[in-house]
Design brief:
By secondary structure, the chain is mainly beta. The chain has one helix at 74-83, and strands spanning 6-16, 19-24, 29-33, 45-54, 57-65. Strands 1-2-3-5-4 form a five-stranded mixed beta barrel. A hairpin with a 2-residue loop joins β1 and β2. It is globular and about 45 Å long.
Length: 87
C-alpha cells in the first residue's frame, strides 16, 4: 500500500516503550503518530482515521472510542455553525 493512502482502522489502542500502537482485530498492527493526550484510550477499542506515513506508521487525523460517533474537527464544527447562520 502506498504512502499517503487513507485508512479507517479498528482495533485496541496499546502503548509500548516507543509509542502508541493500534492492535487490529484481524491480527495486524500499526504504529500511530498521536499525542499523549490520547493516553486515556489505551486498552480501549478505538477507530482511527489517518494517512499512511511509513511502512507501519499512520499519521492519525482522528481517533475515537468504538461505538461512539466520529468527532468533528474544529474546522468541521465551524463550517457547520456558519452553514446554519442566517442573516
Amino acid at each position: 500500500m502506498p504512502r499517503g493512502a487513507a485508512h479507517l482502522e479498528t482495533g485496541k489502542l496499546g502503548h509500548d516503550g516507543h509509542g502508541f500502537l493500534l492492535l487490529m482485530d484481524g491480527g495486524g498492527r500499526w504504529r500511530l503518530d498521536i499525542t499523549r493526550s490520547q493516553r486515556k484510550l489505551v486498552g480501549e477499542q478505538v477507530i482511527v482515521r489517518g494517512t499512511r506515513a511509513d511502512f507501519d506508521l499512520l499519521d492519525v487525523h482522528k481517533i475515537w472510542q468504538a461505538g461512539e460517533p466520529e468527532p468533528r474537527t474544529m474546522y468541521e464544527a465551524l463550517i457547520c455553525l456558519l452553514g446554519n447562520f442566517k442573516t
